[in-house]
Predict the structure.
Amino acid sequence: MRLATDRLLIREFSESDLIDLVQVLADPQVMEFSVSGALTEEEVKFKLQDQILAHYKAHGYGL
């Protein structure tokens, strides 16, 4: 699914999003109030591949 406006783009995650996702989820300030806290690059890679992308594949939608 892809939804676009002049200021917003909503689309499925892809492998190419890993670098940007690591920048966000590994930042201690961003993740300060998260239950998991900041994640390592390996944890983010696992989350993207084995959770987010796998959910898209299995259910046709996701995060």
